[in-house]
Amino acid sequence: MYGALTAFVFLLSILLYTNRGEDWGWLSPASISLLAVALVFGISFIWIERTSAQPMLNLALFNDRVFSFANLSALISFMALYALVFLTPFYLMFVLHYSILKVGLIMAASPIATLFVAPLSGTISDRIGSRALAFCGMCIAAVGLFLLSGLNASADSFDVIWRMAITGTGMGMFQSPNNSAIMGSVPVTHLGIASGILAAMRNVGMVFGIAVAGAVLYNVAPIAVYMQPGAFGSAEIEQFVSGLRWAYISGAALTGTAALTSLMAIRRQRQD
Questions:
Q1: Which of 175, 231, 246, 252 is the residue whose CA sits 20 to 30 A from 55?
Q2: What is the pTM assigned to this prediction?
């Protein structure tokens, strides 16, 4: 019970900080207080789980380097993915002036690519191993996000679709093998816990990704916070596109980092 309570307060504090930090100020007293609470309860959670006879989370699982690095890769990959998911609709509506229906159809390009690639990469990973595919998938996703940073106010729907499809292909190539690495690195009796940790990484990564992408966009283009469809002229649109460009580049940097953590898992596993 105490472990669940401290975990709840820790996650609530850190997620509230990432969600509201832009509005409150990242170094404001309220934000710093949230970080302090998160630190205290995070340390308390680790201490409780290490000393409890029946811990909520078996921290010994993280002694396995494949499990640790694969979960870290999952966290970072979802941060990068949600930079794309969060910001691209605003670009399509505010800059290209597409309807909601057209925005939805274009946004489907990435998950459709993932839908087709993920089962294939999962099958291949069963034969050749998962870490190399995870590494290559993150590299492809990084290329896709970097290409998205080249979008401008004169792009058409196809320019967006093929870039998103590349990113979705990389994500699909990564996710199945990485999930397999996580689930395959724990004893059968701990599969439920491993699945829960993976789900937590996904959800926390989503929130962090939105916070990071929003922070980059608003710091480069402060006008974006007041963006309304059809309300701004060419100068404001150009500022928004510049902020979007750096947000996508940040996403590409995150996927590159996830590629490195996947590669580190390969090397450390081979040293065992």
A1: 175
A2: 0.86
